[in-house]
Amino acid sequence: MNRSRMISRLTDEVQWDVIVIGGGASGLGAAVDAASRGYSTLLLEQSDFAKGTSSRSTKLVHGGVRYLKQGNVSLVLEALQERGLLRRNAPHLVRNLQFIVPVYDWWEGPFYGVGLRLYDMLAGKLGLGDSRNLSREETLDGIPTIEPDQLRGGVLYYDAQFDDARLAITLARTAVDLGATVLNYVRVVGLTKENNLTNGVLAVDSTTGKEYEIRARSVVNATGVFTDTIRTMDDPDSVPMVRASQGVHIVLDRSFLPGEAAIMVPSTEDGRVLFAIPWHNRVVVGTTDTPVDLVSLEPRPLEAEIDFLLDCSVKYLTNDPTRADILSVFAGLRPLVAPADEKDTASVSREHVVHISRSGLVTIAGGKWTTYRRMAADVIDKAAIVGRLKESSSQTEKLKLHGYREDLPDVDIPADRGHLDSYGSDVSQIRSLLNDRPELGAPVVKGLPYNLAEVVWSIRHEMALTVEDVLARRTRCLLLDARGSMDAAENVAQLMAAELDRDGGWVAAQAASYRKLATGYLPESA
Question: Are residues 139 and 247 located together in one domain of the fold?
Answer without folding.
Answer: yes
